[in-house]
């Protein structure tokens, strides 16, 4: 492949890695990971609410990795309540999973920036061995893609398996009980998915640029060395 096309491919991959790192950083700092609605089930049962009356007991919840907001409906209008995971909710959430999600988000951002730098070095400079050559480019892309997948798996398990929304909704609630009425992942969660797919695409771009996969040996070289051995 001509050198100009390789430079274009590496520049494109570097810009995509940089965009992913910035997107992941923006996603970490927002409250747009989960959106949903919560039903004040005990209040609805007390008045036997149904149909239009049921909406008076349906509140809303929205949160990210560090903070969020819930709006409680008590039949008398919404009452907003802002919260933060650290230290307010540390006792009721699966802290180890939540901290792991934040840690992998940090790794995703760091290695996205590192990958962008090495892509640019390979585009405008002479590729070095190992860390700045094809093996390094595959390595940074693989680590970033793996971290993105782990973030989605861990956060999904925290929300769905450990019922994170219900734990947050019932935080500091004494008499009444809230149930999850609806729940969906929001923009920041899908941003991490896009980042993972882009890093996987970068690995394909490296291959498309003409680099062999790491630790692979061509059959021609083996044939040539075999012929040389027979000569001696």
From TrEMBL:
GO biological process, one term: equilibrioception
Membrane topology designation: Multi-pass membrane protein
Main location per the UniProt record: membrane
Listed GO CC annotations: membrane
Subcellular location: Membrane
rRNA processing as UniProt keyword: no
Position of the signal peptide: 1-26
Ranges annotated as spanning the membrane: 97-123, 135-155, 189-209
Keywords from the UniProt entry: Membrane, Signal, Transmembrane, Transmembrane helix
Alphabetical list of Pfam families matching this protein: Clarin-2
InterPro entries to which the protein is assigned, alphabetical: Clarin
Similarity comment text for this entry: Belongs to the clarin family.
Protein name as catalogued: CLRN1 protein
Organism field: Hippolais icterina
């Amino acid at each position: 492949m001509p050198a100009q096309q390789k430079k274009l491919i590496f520049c494109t991959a570097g810009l995509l890695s940089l965009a992913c790192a910035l997107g992941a950083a923006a996603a970490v700092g927002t409250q747009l990971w989960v959106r949903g609605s919560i039903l004040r089930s005990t209040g609805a049962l007390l008045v036997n609410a149904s149909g239009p009356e049921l909406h008076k007991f349906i509140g809303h919840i929205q949160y990210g990795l560090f903070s969020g907001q819930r709006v409680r409906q008590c039949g008398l209008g919404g009452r907003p309540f802002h919260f933060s995971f650290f230290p307010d909710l540390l006792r009721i959430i699966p802290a180890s999973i939540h901290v792991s999600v934040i840690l992998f988000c940090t790794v995703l951002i760091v290695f996205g920036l590192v990958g962008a730098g090495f892509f640019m070095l390979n585009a405008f400079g002479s590729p070095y061995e190992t860390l700045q050559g094809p093996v390094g480019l595959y390595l940074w892309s693989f680590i970033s893609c793996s971290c993105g997948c782990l973030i989605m798996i861990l956060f999904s398990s925290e929300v769905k398996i450990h019922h994170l929304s219900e734990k947050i909704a019932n935080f500091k609630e004494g008499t009444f009980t809230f149930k999850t009425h609806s729940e969906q992942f929001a923009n920041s969660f899908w941003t991490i998915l896009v980042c993972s797919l882009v890093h996987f695409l970068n690995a394909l771009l490296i291959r498309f640029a003409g680099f062999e996969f790491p630790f692979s040996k061509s059959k021609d070289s083996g044939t040539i060395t075999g012929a040389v051995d027979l000569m001696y």
